[in-house]
Amino acid sequence: xxxxxxxxxxxxxxxxxxxxxxxxxxxxxxxxxxxxxxxxxxxxxxxxxxxxxxxxxxxxxxxxxxxxxxxxxxxxxxxxxxxxxxxxxxxxxxxxxxxxxxxxxxxxxxxxxxxxxxxxxxxxxxxxxxxxxxxxxxxxxxxxxxxxxxxxxxxxxxxxxxxxxxxxxxxxxxxxxxxxxxxxxxxxxxxxxxxxxxxxxxxxxxxxxxxxxxxxxxxxxxxxxxxxxxxxxxxxxxxxxxxxxxxxxxxxxxxxxxxxxxxxxxxxxxxxxxxxxxxxxxxxxxxxxxxxx
Length: 293
Hints:
Layout: H1 2-21, E1 25-30, H2 38-53, E2 57-62, H3 65-74, E3 81-82, E4 85-86, H4 90-114, E5 119-123, E6 130-134, E7 137-139, E8 148-150, E9 155-161, H5 164-171, E10 175-179, E11 181-183, E12 189-192, H6 194-205, E13 209-214, E14 229-231, H7 232-240, H8 248-260, E15 265-270, H9 276-281, E16 289-292
């Protein structure tokens, strides 16, 4: 009986959050270990389906870099990166579209549907969802006039989001699953960073939350302890002081951009923890770092 009462208490603890978030949109960037481990994949799908059934509107944006790398190598093509961006010629772009839009996207859709959800796969090209332009990379020299512009190919940055296709799917109870590919001014496909695309979509939808699933437990202080709640101002201080570095920087910058775009809160959580979404959203303490204005 004690165990049953404890289960009831868990549900009661979640009740105010369920009430508060009913009808709201959560954009979830899905990547890292949660996208590779079979048990974590199943737990993620269950979390998403549960969110949908209780009236929350999840929108999934996914990456797939390791799968792209593996496919390129099988095809005899070596992946190349500049300042963290994949150099994307036309052949590589074909591989990116094939892997992200054709393989990874459909696997996630199938996974969610297998748990009772109603997921639909999209790319940023569908319904004119993501308009983009080629991203410019500059290599700094000792003198500003000697700075070099580097062409990294068909890599894009978002210029506009047309969310009507997402809103239409949400209205009918579907769960959009979106691969990070946009369309340029000439109709060309552009490879877009999934963190940046998540922030752009969340801003366009005025989402309640933008949640990043990562391979770390959250943003940590100098002592290595997770900081449960931060503001944009505190984040900038941590970036300036060098506490936030490396792979966390793109997610933090995307979080700041999303908050500026009207998203209520962003979360950086550990996707290696089963049911991490439920633990972050429906418990008082959460498990990661929550960022707010």
